[in-house]
Amino acid sequence: MKFKHIVLFVVSSVVLFSCVSAKKLKEEKAKYARLDSAYGQEKKWYADCMDSSRLYHAMIGVLRDRLQDQKTSNEQMVNHLKDLSVLSGSQSESINKFLETMGAKDAYIKDLQAAMARKDSMNMALAMNLKGAVGSMDDKDINIKIDKGVVYVDISDKMLFKSGRYEVNAKAKEVLGKVAKVLLAHPEIEFMVEGHTDNIAFKEGILTDNWDLSAKRATSVVRILQKEYGIPPARMTAAGRGEYKPLVSNDTPDGKAANRRTRIVILPALDQFFDLMEKK
After folding, report:
1. Diameter of the chain by CA atoms?
2. What are phi and psi of 207, to 5 degrees?
3. Three-state SS annotation for the chain
4. CA-based, 20 to 30 A from 264: which of 42, 48, 154, 204?
């Protein structure tokens, strides 16, 4: 009976110990899990700190370089200001003279611009006067225009000359007289009379080519303006352009007709600008 009690005590103790050990083990496992999780978080935090540390060190290096660049720039600026101080102290009079010269040049440019504006106004008035004088003539035979500050009067070949001839016909004297009247009213004007032809080769009598024909036609017009309308010859120039300054292509009969013309070019009064520059 006593032995039976001993056996029961031993069995009970083993069972109780087993229960206590299982509970303790469970608690220890839970504790370990918590510690392991905390360790993982601490490890991640440490890694983040290391990354941040490397980033901060890199930023510090960049800022240090920028600071050095700024110091160098400041030193250069100080040296530059010192140079300017020396310059303003030793050459202020020269700088003032330079500024005065620039002011004078600005005024000079304004004078030239005003002169150009007056010239443009005079050209416009002249062109309007010429158009008014020859207004009754056929527009296809006379063209008056302003191009790049120059007045041009184009008179067709058929109005002035017979084919292949350079003698001015009677009908042409009417239009030349009207043009001459306007030119005489402006004694300050000088002009050039240009002869132009098409590209058809020409040779007749003493004339060897279109150069000769265009030059003879220009001098014929100049002589009419001088002898019959009293324009001083010193105001005129005669020039032959031949076939080499066409208005349009010579590929069609109409194109050839347009290129056969006499052109009066109102020359710019360049001497006025030269006088202005010499005075300045």
Report:
1. 175
2. -85, 130
3. CHHHHHHHHHHHHHHHHHHHHHHHHHHHHHHHHHHHHHHHHHHHHHHHHHHHHHHHHHHHHHHHHHHHHHHHHHHHHHHHHHHHHHHHHHHHHHHHHHHHHHHHHHHHHHHHHHHHHHHHHHHHHHHHHHHHHCCCCCCCCEEEEEECCEEEEEEEHHHHCCCCCCCCCHHHHHHHHHHHHHHHCCCCCCEEEEEECCCCCCCECCECCHHHHHHHHHHHHHHHHHHCCCCCHHHEEEEEEECCCCCCCCCCHHHHHHHCEEEEEECCCHHHHHHHHHHC
4. 204
Question: pLDDT tens-digit profile of 37-66?
Answer: 656 655 655 565 555 555 555 666 666 676
CA 23 to chain centre: 93
Q: What is the pLDDT of residues 75-119, one digit of tens each?
A: 676 566 556 555 555 566 776 676 677 777 677 677 767 767 777
CATH entry, 115-278, from 3.30.420.10, 1.10.287.130, 3.30.1330.60, 1.10.760.10: 3.30.1330.60
The residue with tokens 């158009």 is 131
Residue type, 161: F
